[in-house]
Structure formats: structure tokens, C-alpha cells
Amino acid sequence: MHHIDQDLFLGKVSGFLGGYFLFVAVMNAVAAFYLWRTGRSKELFRVGGLPVTTALFWLAIAMILTIASAFAFGGTPWGMPLVLMDFADWLMSPVVYTVGSLAVLSLMFVARDFFVRPFVAWSGLNIALFLMGLSMTDQDFYSIVGKPDNVPIVGMVFLLGYFTWLGAYKAVINDRRIANGEEPLEALDKEKVLVWPDLVYTELICMVALTALLIVWAIVLKAPLEEPASAVKTPNPSKAPWYFLGLQEMLVYYDPWMAGVVLPSMVVFGLMAIPFLDFNKKGNGYYTIADRKFAYVTFQFGFLVLWVTLIVMGTFLRGPNWNFFGPYEAWDPHKVVALNNVDLSEYFWISALGQARPKAPSDASTAVQLGYILLRESPGIVLLLLYLGALPPALVLYSRFFRDLFVRMGFLRYMVLSNLLLMMMLLPIKMVARWTVNMKYFIAIPEYFLNF
Fold it and tell me: Is the pLDDT of residue 192 over 90?
């Protein structure tokens, strides 16, 4: 990735960073004024006997951000410390990023009463915005995040975080009310709103506001148009549109028929099967987590971990030659990563048993050749059968939660549900196996284009 002189680069981005930090400062000042004006400001701690309230705290943050804005406008914007940049590059390595995302989401689910608090959520937003502002002084980070194609994706990440928090916030409030014997908030608002004029006016206002936003967007940002397509020059990296990047990432670990046909089809049929599998009638018409924990966790895992994190990975972490790069690492097209992907059958026959994989004689019949292929891939076939066939009954025997599911759902519905969940888990399992032990396929039958 081409770099220019750092002083020239800072002069180029200083105006943007000055306005950026000033905008975040005004945002916090407005929040402080709102808390003070509405009487919602709460005491956080005391300094010398004087109370420090949330309004005063956010006002102090606004002042700090104003100072950061002044430094940026002066041509010397604050930058990200090198030690934090190295830590972020390690943190966004594929294994740590994937497993860490799952761990963080699990922690946020368990401690959701804490994380949905407005002060905590607003603090997290400020930290994210502040760190992103500091990171903009790094040319490699800026070239990725500031790319016109990626700007809306950055915005959607923040919007996704907001709406995920909003749903969880309302759900936690309803769960508290239900636990106290009260009705959910949605049951208190029974007023009907007419389509005309209320809804139509609202949609008209939103349409006008969105049109104005798109006009400003088109003026400020250059259209992300590339040169005409050429058969002799392929972009490196060549990426699908952002909404297909999760699918493109899955193609790294599965054959096209699996990642492009089987898995998406299972998602569609799984969604169609939900009404027939779901026996819990609670949660209809109101936000809740406590009444539908299993459904909530399953959805968030499938959407956030198996889709959104893959989109973020494909957008910001996949560089030339589809190699992984940290957010502060230069996208070097000459980077070579030595990979020797090995099938499970190779690990079993060659590494573990120290012998060649079974191979049919050259003059063997088709049936004999098929038998040798099944023998060769028997470790993966047996492992997959145990995973999909034996694990669901084992969960019933050793887990009270799945035992209750089995009793309520019956054998057929339980097996369909459990196999859908296990197929969901296969993607992160396959990804981590590829990154850690270079596992290529659990079952590799290239003779019939059947690899899994």
C-alpha cells in the first residue's frame, strides 16, 4: 500500500479529524445538557466531598475532545500509541477475533443488566469513537476505513451496535417488569395510530431527510467507481459486495457447493422450520430475553457471530491474496503465508498410523474403488456421524436444558433443531481448525467433487 510523507498525510487529515473530534465533543455536551435539564443526571462518585454527576462527567469528556479537536486543527492530531496498535493487530488475528467475539458476546449476554445501562453503553460508544479518531492518523488504517466503499460499512457497524443495544435495553426493562408482576411496556401503549395521516406523514419526513443525507453524502464522498473491467487485470483483493462477504469467507473453508448451496439452503429451510419447531409462545408482541433465552442466543449467534463478524473480517481484515492483515498493518501484495492444508484422513493414516492412505488398485471396479474411498475417509465420516447422530442424544442425557427441550418437542422436532444448531457450529469449528492445525477437509472425496 502506497505511503506518503507522514507530515503531508497529517496535514491532509487534520481538518477532518478536527471536525470529527468537535462533533463528538458537541454530542457529549448535548448529552450532558439533556441529563442536567431533565433531572436524569446521577451521582457517580465524590471528589473532595463534591459530587461528580453523569452530566458533569460527560461535560468534562466534551472538553477533552474539544482540546483534541484544537490539536487536530492545528496540524498535530493525537495519534494511537504504538503499543496499542500492536495489541489491536494481535487482537484482530483470526483465531483471537473469532473466539474473542464469541466470548465478548457471551459475557454481554450474561451481564446484560450491566451493559444495557445508558451510561455504560454511552461510554462504550465514546471509547470506540475516540479510538477510531486516534487511529485515523495511521495511514494503513485510514486507507481502509476511509475508503468510500467502506465508509457506509463503518456506519452500519455502529448502527447495528445501537439497535442491538436498544432491543436488549427494552428487553431487560420488560423482564424486570414481568418479574415484578407488571405488564411489559408494549402492553401499556394500546393507542392505535392511523396510516393516514400519521404514518404517511412520518414516512414523508423520513424520505425527505434521507434524500438530503444522500445528496450531502454524494457531494462529500467520491463515488467508489473503479476502472472498466479487464480480463487481464484482476483487482487484488477481489471482493464481493459487502452483503456477500460472509458467503465469500465461507468459500475459503468449504467447497462452492457446500458454502454456496447447502449452507444457505439450510438457513432458508431452518427459518421456514422455526414456526413448526418453536413451542414457546411467550414473547409475542414485546421485547424480552428472559422468556426466550434460547431463541435470543441462537439468533444472536447466527447473525452476529456467523454473519456480521465475517462481513467485518472480509471488509477490513482480508487484504491482497486474501491474506489476513491487522487493522494497522500495511496491505503488502507480496506477503506470502506458508500454508500446507491437510485433510483429516492424512492426519489419521499418515501422521497417526504412519502408513499410506488406502488406495484401490488401478484395475479395480467402481464398487471396489468406492469402498477404498470410504475406507480412506472413514475417520471423517465416523466423526461426522457421531457429531450429528450421537451428540444430540448425548446432550439429552447429560444436559438438563436439552432434556427439557426433548420432552417438550419430541424426537423428530428435537433432532431437526439440534442438527440445525450443530451445522451452525460447524462453521466456526472449521474456521478455527483451518487456522490452528491447517485442517482442510474433514471428508475429502475429490473423485466425486464431494468435500466437506
Answer: no
